Amino acid sequence: MNFKHLFGLTCGFGLLAVTSAFAALPKATEIYPKMGLGYNIGNTMEVPKNQGGATGWGNPFPDASYVKAIKAAGFNTVRIPCAWDTYATNGVIDEAWLADVKKVVDLVVNEGMYAILNSHWDGGWLEDHVFDGAGFDKSGAVTSAAADVAALQTKYWTQIANYFKSYDEHLIFASANEPGVNDPWNGGADNGQWAFDATRMKVLKTFHEACINAVRATGGNNETRTIVVQAPRTEIEKAPLLAADYPSDPAGTGYTMAEVHFYPYQFSLMTGGDEDWGKMFYYWEDKTPGTDAAHTCKNGALGSKTSIDELFGGLNTQFASKGIPVVIGEMGAVKRLDVLSGANLKSHLEARAAWYGYTAASAKKNGLIPCVWDTGDEGNGNFTIVRRQTKKFGGNVGDITDYETLNAMRAAYGMTAIEGNSIDALVNASLDESNKMLEVTYNTVTSDSSEVGTLRFNVSSKNWSNYTAISFQAKIDVEATGPSADKDVTWMTLSLFAMSGNDWAWNDYNFEASDLDAGWATYTVPLNEEGLDIENKAAVNAFGFNLYGTQLKGKIDFDNIRLIKADGSAVVLADFDKKLGAETDGIASATRVTSTAPEMTLAIKPIVATTSKMFVNVQQGFVNATFTATEAVSATAKLVNGLGQVIAGQNFTTRKGSNTVQLKAAYRGPAMLVIKSGSQMQTQKVILK
Q: Do the strands 368-372 and 657-664 form a parallel or antiparallel pair, or are they unpaired?
């Protein structure tokens, strides 16, 4: 029963009036047939507080029009990934955050849909610590007490359960998200990761039981509310570990569900090019060009029809047939708009739609609830079906952006198709075969501190070990617009950066003003200590360009970014002749335009190490300074205010080449940054925010 409809009123502390007695809620097996297709409101409520909160990753806060559109599209379950730890102080969740979460839950249940409210990654406070004692997480070797993590799990779920106690069976709780998925890739026995075995499953079981027991102890509807527990890493291959050591429930059997996620990597997520061990799958089964079988997911490959049926059938045997419905909490496959065009792109988009439809149908057949992943983005690599980022992509909130995928899933659930076509527009947009470049425009906003414009390319842990240099063409037309009354210096610096390894280590190379030409030029930077010295060349995650400066505007045109081997041969990283494969942030914005770059010659202007000026990026609460050191020496960095007081300082050791140091300061106003390394001393006036 939905108390919302029974009473028809709301009250300040919750959606529903509290009643004097609570009847047992339906079992999970009774709820499952009504849940239908599921949709994720992703990259929203799970954004950590220190990363901007619900809107910090680019999505607007969910409103009624968006949730109504999800319902109208044919979905009857909405998964709400949610952060809690970064919204808590000493284990107590902020009341304001609980109220914000409640707004989203209410939007869902008001439409008669089922809401799955989980505890998402949120910095990995639980998910990265599924072990007891000495172990590993993303930051390296640590010691973790499973009992401490379980105690915090109990504390959070007690608060959440009490806050939502009066909601009926349309609200479902989920203990975690992907516990253990962030184990480091350290050459371990488990697909390169630290092994997840029966011993670790016992730790995960204690975390799940901490959630279950906390919820049950709050009483009322929570005594029998459905709770979802996750398999290790939510990998289907790890589901037998959960089945063999399933958490106990004080409510008895039948009030829990199991959860896995489904992203067959080569078809769903693999980007950045083929690997020696396997190729990217653009196509699926019979939805393929006849000449490209190598890039087609079929014949039992992970994600093919045979694979889906076998994996989902296994979940039925292990869980669903025993009265434990299974939620596929996340599933999906990216759109590969950057590498395909024309007929090939059409085949790819048709293949995605067919895969979604078959996956949904097989899930329904085997007692599983498929929930498609959505990030709100509509660019390359997106999963989005229902629009919400109208400021970026136009249109209206709730527009359908992928009719073919939606209709394939609707057909699997016996629903009629919604009229519309999404594929043709994408294919037509891809048919421009003219030579393109990327035009990046920069425009600073403030005049009293430096700002950053970022152009970034994600390359998914590519191995650059066999390359000796990176080369690109650029035409630089950026000018300083100062000086102004409150700052007597204007400057800018261009930096080439890369991030690598499990910890996304940052390395960069800073260009001197004398290195940069006003017209078109080819720039070649060695991938060694004399240039861009990447910490882990075997696992490059991203690279790009940062333009730092104050009071500047203009643009840089980029084209033909290449990696160069020792023999002089090269591979293209980005030539922009296909869809935009880059992200921008800060004061930068980018668009593809017709290229005016001359024919590229790889060795026109080799760059060698020079003594670079210091450049500074000021953000609220901290200062980043990058400078070049001629040798490895002891160094100090200080911030000194107008009274000569040191308000922040740090001792460190430089390395030869580019160095970056960060100082934290609560002070606001003018200050002097002083960095001394060996016999070198560099200073820069800054305005602290």
A: unpaired
- Across 11-163, where does the E strand assignment appear? 37-40, 75-80, 88-89, 92-93, 114-118, 133-137, 140-144
Task: Give, for 648, the enclosing helix (H) or strand (E).
Answer: strand 646-653
Residues 183, 466, 301, 458, CA torsion sign: positive
DSSP alpha helix (H) spans, 375-422: 390-393, 403-412
| d(C-alpha 564, C-alpha 9), whole Å | 67
Query: In sequence order, which residues have a C-beta less than 8 Å from that of residue 56 and are 6 or more positions away?
Result: 47, 48
* 3-state secondary structure at position 667: coil
Return the bridge partners of 173, or none: 117, 227
**Omega before 483 cis (within 30°)?**
yes
| Tokens 């066999």 sit on residue | 466
Q: Could you tell me the maximum CA-CA distance found in the chain, to the nearest angstrom? A: 81
State the alpha helices, DSSP H only, in 146-238: 146-163, 198-217
Strands (E), 406-491: 436-443, 451-462, 469-480
Cβ–Cβ under 8 Å, residues 541 and 523: no
136-140 CB contacts, 8 Å cutoff, 24+ apart: 136/183, 136/184, 136/186, 136/194, 137/182, 137/183, 137/184, 138/182, 138/184, 138/502, 138/503, 139/503, 140/503
pLDDT tens digits, one per residue of 657-678 = 777 788 887 666 667 777 877 7
CA distance linking residue 115 with residue 61, whole number of Å? 16
- Cα Rg of the chain (Å, integer): 27
Question: Nearest 5°: CA angle at 512, between 510 and 516?
Answer: 105
**Cα distances (angstroms) measured from residue 369 to each of 114, 258, 260, 320:** 12, 10, 10, 11
Distance between CA atoms of 418 and 354, rounded to whole angstroms? 16
The H or E element spanning position 296 is strand 296-297
Task: Tell me the torsion sign for CA atoms 454, 455, 459, 462.
Answer: negative
Distances from the Cα of 15 to the Cαs of 9, 162, 678, in angstroms? 8, 13, 64
Cα separations (Å) of 111 from 4, 71, 330, 459?
A: 11, 7, 22, 40
Backbone angles phi, psi at 274, to 5 degrees: -70, 155
Asked if residues 71 and 113 have their Cβ atoms less than 8 Å apart, the reply is: yes
Phi, psi of 679 (to 5 degrees): -90, -5
Q: What's the pLDDT tens digit per position in 350-407? A: 999 999 999 999 999 999 999 999 999 998 899 999 999 998 888 999 999 999 999 9
